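ok trying this again, last paste got cut off
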Amino acid sequence: MLDKRRIEAVEKFQIEAVFGRMAIDASINGIAFLDNEAHLIQVNPSLLKLWGYESENEIVGRSFSDLFQSPHRAQMAVGAVYETGSWTGELPAKRKDGSLFIGQVSAVMIKDEDGSSPYMMASFLDVTAQRGLEVALGHSCDLLQTVLKHLPLGVIIAEAPSGRMLAGNDRVEEIWRHPFISCNDIEGYHAYKGFHPDGRLYQPEEWPLARSVRSGDVISNLEIDFLRGDGTRGILEVDSSPIYDKDGSIVAAVTIFSDITERKGLEDQIRASRDELELRVRERTAQLEERSKELEELNDKLHELNQKISQEHRQRVYLSRRLVGMLERERREVAYVLHEKTAQVLAALKIELEQIESSPGIENVTPCIHSAKKKILYLIDSIKDTSRLLRPSILDTLGMVCAIRSLINRLNEDHPGLKIDLFAREVPERITPEKEIAIYRIIQEALTNCIKHADPKKINVNLFKKNDVIILTIEDDGKGFDYDSPVGLSGQIEGPLGITIMRERAVQLGGEFWIESAFGKGTYVSAKIPIG
């Protein structure tokens, strides 16, 4: 039962609260009115809902301290209200079902017109979720601080739109080599010195953090030359990004950066080493390609040389076979001359001498002697011809030019319709015997072949010395023969024996030999014999 005093207080309160009742009932905060002894005299629906009661009858008249887990702490709060006139704080509250929540309490004394305080008003709010969020946020902040502290990158967080720096980790000081300067706005960013590639100083609004705060720019891997606190220069690699709230508005920005000076130096060294290596590789590749080309050329030359050697071998086999045949033919010719001519003439001379020996009178001797003399002269000429065929004696006595001139004179005499001219200049009087006979035989063979096969009217023989080489040419106006191209040292393996022998004579002496000819164009024979 409420005593008389309490009833009077309630009645008075009810009269004064008529006009505020509806507002109190509509409040989302729990609201309670208490008398001077801290008993509940009126509560609004939000308070009933907050503590889990269905009607005022379940709670009106109960002590304020009954609503909380710790009545002692609640009584201390009431005492503070009585003492100071108000109190705000948080108390662990206990619902009807025994569950707990954190209640934020704000209580004040309500005074009458006479200045007395017959009752108090208290407002309640469940802040359990908020406090849990704050605890979780505190844990997150602790975790973030731990991450930032151990992160190997410098990190600065700034709020938007002012650009005021909210936080920076220890790496900021290590990288910049001076204490962290927490700028209050973007204009304060001039405390940090950075330089553009062209050397211009970074303006405060040009720093990536300022751009992210103001414009929402996202910057990645931007390299900035910067000035450290100790006066040295370095290179930063900077990333910056804005932070948005749920409505898409920029509320902050974060920039992370690292000192890549050493890395850039290593990269430059690696780049220089790579460039040098690439240069060496290119040079080595070029050298290898050149060596490969040289080897290919050498291989081609070896192949060509092998072909020449093989061809030379076949040519020499062929030449040896032909020379053996020619030698046998010459032997037969010499044997024929000796047997059929010389022997027969000598036999006839023997008979005529026997006739003279047995002749009884001198008158029969003269015709026999005359006949014998003719046979002896014929025999002498025959032996000379054979001797010249084997080796011209004039070559040994008067020299090469005289021997060649003698050969040409004899051929002119033997062939009246043919004109052979010799042009010799600066030819040494004597050279080595093997070279003299080679030059003589080449000219002899060339003239013989020309007269035999080309039916010429005119032949010019040139013989001259140039440097340490004897050059000879034989040019005729005969009918020529079919040569698709000039024949040099390679020539044909088989073919006219005379040409083969001439070429072999020149080659054996380290010289050169070739022929140019075509039907109706005559023939040009040339040879070079070194004499140095």
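PB: full thing came through this time. Confidence is low (pLDDT under 50) at residues 485-494.
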